[in-house]
Amino acid sequence: MKDHRMMKTTGTTGGAPHSDTPAEHRCAGASARAVDEAPKTVKTVDQTEAAPMVAAPTKPGLSRYLWNAVHHFRTINRHKREVMKNCFRVGLYKQGLLHDLSKYSWAEFKTGVKYYQGYRSPNTAERLETGLCEAWLHHKGRNKHHFEYWVDYDTKKKATMVGCRMPYRYVAEMFCDRVAASKVYKGADYDDSCPWEYFQPCKDSPLLEPETRREITELLWMLKTEGEEKTFAYLKKEIARRRREKDHF
Prior knowledge:
Number of helices: 10
Strand order of the largest sheet: 1-2
Helix content: 40-55%
């Protein structure tokens, strides 16, 4: 985990990460505004330090698609490992294991094979070229840690879509997802303010239910101002309390 847009490039640093990754996905308008010219040589943070910088094949074809597939696979693997560590840290073992498995389905993975660029989400590239991203539509409908999953018709306003409140365990997973995506795509430039900055383009979305907005904002602000240790310790206790008391868990 929402669709990861912070990628290191030669002479270029991307904007917000995509977790789609939750954030990649998360605000099509924001991602479109963040488009930069693609560099000719890309070094992604999922490569080992010992690996030499390798330029992507410049022409479409089998070699380019294989290169894209390998690098996209490395990126989603590293992201999943980071989310798993975060979820295990707060007691969400099942969610950590199952997080973002749909990214390995062909419905989602094929977008990475075709559109992987290394400095922005392949979902963004597909969306800009075709007007929509089928991988993201598939992803957000199967992963409950994205607030876009929790959208339904408003019972008070006819033909209006509205965000519904997320169970707290998925708010917690969304937090873990955003922290992991920021670390993967920011690399050495990561600090505890990055997930907060990543959240800003989407914080006022009408699809983000007010109580859910308050809960995720609290966690991201605590991370930024008080650090990782205190925030994860607080989240672990809050998850345990809500599970025990059945408080919208």
